[in-house]
């Protein structure tokens, strides 16, 4: 079980080091006056610090290295 969690953390850590975030588009209502509705597309971004990916990577390596072999 620890080995599986470690492998997942390693993969997640590598992905977070390569991609430091992502951007998505969200529709937001600007005017909502009865039958008249005006909306606009707004871009939102989600970013995470690169050191978080490094921490996950190191944690995953430690879990894999210390996992007992069955």
Keywords:
2 strands, 2 helices, single chain, 70 residues, two-stranded antiparallel ribbon, 49% helix
Topology overview:
Blueprint: H1 2-18, E1 21-33, E2 36-47, H2 50-66
Antiparallel strand pairs: 1-2
Helix pairs in contact: 1-2
Strand order in space, largest sheet: 1-2
Task: State the order of secondary-structure elements, H for helix, E for strand.
Answer: HEEH
Count the E strands.
Answer: 2
Averaging pLDDT over every residue, what do you get?
Answer: 90
Structural domains: how many: 1
Strand content: 35-45%
Outline: elongated
Give the termini separation: 10 Å
How many DSSP H or I helices? 2
Class inferred from helices and paired strands: alpha+beta
CA radius of gyration is 20 Å
What share of the residues lie within helices?
A: 40-55%
Major sheet, described briefly?
Answer: 2 strands, antiparallel
Query: Which consecutive residue ranges, at least 5 long each, have pLDDT under 50?
Result: none
Descriptive overview:
The protein is an alpha+beta fold and 70 residues long. The protein has one domain. The chain has helices spanning 2-18, 50-66, and strands at 21-33, 36-47. A two-stranded antiparallel sheet has the order 1-2. Strand 1 and strand 2 (36-47) form a beta hairpin. The model has no long low-confidence stretch (mean pLDDT 90).
Q: How do you describe this structure in short?
A:
The chain is α+β, with helices and mostly antiparallel strands and 70 residues long.
